[in-house]
Design brief:
- With 202 residues, the protein is of the alpha+beta class.
- Helix content is 45%, strand content 25%.
- The strands form 2 sheets. Strands 2-4-5-7-6 form a 5-stranded mixed sheet, with helices on one face. The protein has a two-stranded antiparallel ribbon with strand order 1-3.
- The two termini are 30 Å apart.
Length: 202
Amino acid sequence: CLNSIQQYILTNEKGKANRYLSGFASLIRQTLDISAHRTIPVSEEASYLRKYLEMERMRFGDSFDYVVHIDDNVNAEQIHMPALLLQPYVENSIRHGIRYKSEGTGKVEVSFSLREEILYCTIKDNGAGRDKAAEFKSKQHIEYQSKGMSLTDKRIELLNLMNASNISVAVIDLKNDDDSAAGTLVEINIPVKYEDYFGSNN
């Protein structure tokens, strides 16, 4: 984000630099505030992801669109979830999916729905797919994201142990009719029947 702000300043795009800087400052403030809580309402997670996606869309020159949708059956103010749990998966979609998409406009879709006391969260992109991303990754020696995902996996393991719950994550490779890559779908299922995920913001 700071590199993008610097670029706007160097190219004398003061309006864009100011808008981006304001968005970045707001995102940092919200990150610090959310980080102080163990759980947050679904509405706050969705708001944070919208802000983050907008910053990334600006950074990538409006080269992708995004949607964050909450189903009507989700009480977004009452149902709580682990704070900042989805952001690493959304970041992964952009950095290793949309980033390497060679044709068409990229799209990231985040959705929340409720099924039998399970909060069902999905992150779907129409990017290059995991195989192509791994190919680029090996050429460029990018290690940051793999560490981020590893830390997220460990965090989910700890949450499951601490709350005697069963947060599950599935990553699905999407395919076109000709078996070519059509993107990636991440499904995160979060039990909400436990007290820790309802109305508790500790």
